[in-house]
C-alpha cells in the first residue's frame, strides 16, 4: 500500500512539474480542432456531397448489427496498428531521436485538425443528425484517444528536452530516469489507444445504431 501511494505521488509530481507542457499541447490540439472546423467552410458543394455520401456509408456499415465477427476482428487489428504502432510508437521514437521531436507537435496538430474537420462537417452539414452521429460515433473512442495522444506526446517531448539540454551541457542530470518515465508514459498511452480500439470496434457500432434509432 505504501509503495502504491508513493508511486502515485511521483506521477502527480511529474504532471505538476510538466503542467505547462501539457497545457501547451492541449492548446495546440484545440488549435487543430478549430482549424479543422473552419476548413469545412472551404469545401465546394461537390466535395461536400462526396464526403456526405462517404460518411453516410461508413456509419451505415457501423450500425449493421449482423456484421460478421471476423470483420470486427480485422477492424480492431487495423485500429490497433494505426493508433498503437503508427501513432504511439511514432511519437515515442520521435522523442528518442530528439531531432525529430518538433514533428510530435505536427502529429498533435494534425490529429486535432482531422477530428475538428470531421465533427465540423457533420454538424455543419446535418445539424441535429450530425450532433447525434458525433456523440455516438466519434466521441466515445476519442475520449480515450485524445488523452492517449497527449500523454505520449508530453512524455516524448519532455525526454527530448532533457536530452537536448544534457547534450548542450546546460544540464548535468542523467537522462536514464527521464527515459524510464517516458517509456512508462508511452506504455500507458498504448494501453489507452488499445482501449480506444476496443471501444471503436465493439461499442461504437452499438451506440451508432442507437443514435440512428433516435433519428428515425
Offer a concise description of the structure:
The protein is mainly α and 216 residues long. It is built from eight helices and no strands.
What does this structure look like?
The chain has eight helices and no strands. The model has no long low-confidence stretch (mean pLDDT 82). The protein has one domain. With 216 residues, it is an all-alpha fold. 88% of the residues lie in helices and 0% in strands.
Count of individual domains: 1
What is the average per-residue confidence, as pLDDT, rounded to a whole number?
82
How many distinct helices? 8
> Into which percent range does the helicity of residues fall?
over 70%
Portion in beta strands: under 5%
Major sheet size, sense and barrel closure: none
Sum up the overall morphology in one term. Answer: elongated
Question: What is the string of helix and strand elements?
Answer: HHHHHHHH
Head-to-tail CA distance between termini: 52 Å
Structural class computed from helices and strand pairing: mainly alpha
Please compute the radius of gyration using only Cα atoms.
20 Å
Number of strands: 0
Low-confidence stretches: none
Amino acid at each position: 500500500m505504501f509503495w502504491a501511494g508513493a508511486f502515485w505521488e511521483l506521477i502527480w509530481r511529474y504532471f505538476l512539474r510538466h503542467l505547462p507542457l501539457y497545457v501547451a499541447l492541449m492548446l495546440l490540439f484545440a488549435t487543430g480542432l478549430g482549424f479543422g472546423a473552419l476548413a469545412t467552410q472551404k469545401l465546394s458543394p461537390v466535395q461536400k456531397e462526396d464526403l456526405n455520401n462517404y460518411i453516410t456509408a461508413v456509419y451505415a456499415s457501423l450500425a449493421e448489427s449482423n456484421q460478421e465477427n471476423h470483420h470486427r476482428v480485422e477492424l480492431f487489428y487495423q485500429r490497433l496498428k494505426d493508433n498503437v504502432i503508427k501513432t504511439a510508437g511514432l511519437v515515442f521514437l520521435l522523442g528518442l531521436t530528439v531531432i525529430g521531436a518538433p514533428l510530435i507537435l505536427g502529429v498533435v496538430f494534425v490529429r486535432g485538425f482531422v477530428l475538428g474537420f470531421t465533427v465540423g462537417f457533420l454538424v455543419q452539414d446535418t445539424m441535429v443528425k450530425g450532433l447525434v452521429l458525433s456523440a455516438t460515433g466519434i466521441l466515445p473512442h476519442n475520449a480515450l484517444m485524445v488523452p492517449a495522444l497527449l500523454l505520449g506526446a508530453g512524455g516524448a517531448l519532455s525526454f527530448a528536452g532533457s536530452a537536448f539540454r544534457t547534450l548542450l551541457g546546460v544540464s548535468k542530470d542523467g537522462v536514464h530516469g527521464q527515459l524510464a518515465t517516458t517509456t512508462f508514459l508511452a506504455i500507458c498511452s498504448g494501453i489507452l489507444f488499445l482501449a480506444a480500439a476496443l471501444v471503436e470496434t465493439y461499442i461504437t457500432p452499438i451506440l451508432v445504431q442507437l443514435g440512428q434509432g433516435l433519428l428515425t
